[in-house]
Amino acid sequence: MRQRSRADVSNAHSVGFLGKKTYLATCVAIWLHDNDKPYVLLCRRLNRLEVDIAVSGAPTIPKSRFSDALADCVQKLEDKPLVQGLHNVVLPTIGMIVPNWFLVVPKVHSFNFGQQGMGTREELSSIASSIFEAVSKPGDEMLAFEHGALRAGSNIGCGVDHAHLHIIVSSRNFLACVWDGMSEELDACDGAAPIGEMYNGVLSEKPYYLAWMSGKTLLEQPAKNEVSQRFRRVIASAAGTPDSWNYREHPFYDNVLKTISNFHQGKRQAA
């Protein structure tokens, strides 16, 4: 067994969210004594797998659509992050009915963004700006929305049991049509907030549908109609392809490739 460094100990101590009192106590012992014996006790007291996760600092994320992307184990093009933030990564979405459709995915697991910490939500502002600057054209606008699931396997979660915020950059006229469709679809309260504060009025213990555009918000909470891919249906209708809303049946890989190319080209031109 290798000697434990102070850097290792600091990292282990920082992820005490595993919720074991003995774990926290032992971490303190390691810090004070700075030798290998307390670590032996730690391995005896806790399941070794938990220890490995804690020491590595890896987020405890269940298997989901984003597992490979968040574990740096990329096998598919759509799992390669376009942006690596401190708290979030940005991916192209599968089933993008229109190009320039992205997902903002938090690195720490929760079922929805409302359950995330303030730092993760506040980072949305800089990430959204980065996306918009890379792919927007004159006359474009940005739309953000989330199906705020509260549990695994719910219709709201659309089969993806990990928080993810959708961001679409497209023409102002098209997104205005989408917004009108969302307004009609939802039994929502209107609000106003910058994108980095769009979750300030969301309750973490109730499922919801949330949309944001041009500083305006639509929030249906609790969700009154738990429909799978509810917003995708609205977008497909606005795009004139009402039957193409299901990302499993219509992955739109051509739009995925186009979006990745647009993003990287925009970044190169801005550099």
List the defining traits of the structure above:
single chain; 8-stranded antiparallel sheet; 10 helices; 8 strands; globular; disordered N terminus
What would you note in describing this structure?
It is a single chain. The protein is of the alpha+beta class and 271 residues long. The chain is 38% helix and 16% strand. It has helices spanning 6-14, 21-33, 37-45, 48-56, 67-70, 118-122, 124-135, 172-185, 230-238, 253-270; strands at residues 83-84, 88-92, 101-106, 140-148, 165-171, 189-192, 208-213, 216-220. Strands 1-2-3-5-4-7-8-6 form an eight-stranded antiparallel beta sheet, sandwiched between helices. A hairpin with a 2-residue loop joins strand 7 (208-213) and strand 8 (216-220). The radius of gyration is 21 Å and the shape is globular. The chain starts with 5 loop residues before the first helix and ends with a helix. The relative contact order is 0.13.
Mean pLDDT: 80
Specify the structural class. Answer: alpha+beta
- Helix and strand sequence: HHHHHEEEHHEEHEEEHH
Using only CA atoms, what is the Rg? 21 Å
**Sheet of most strands:** 8 strands, antiparallel
Molecular shape: globular
Oligomer: single chain
Terminal-residue CA separation = 46 Å
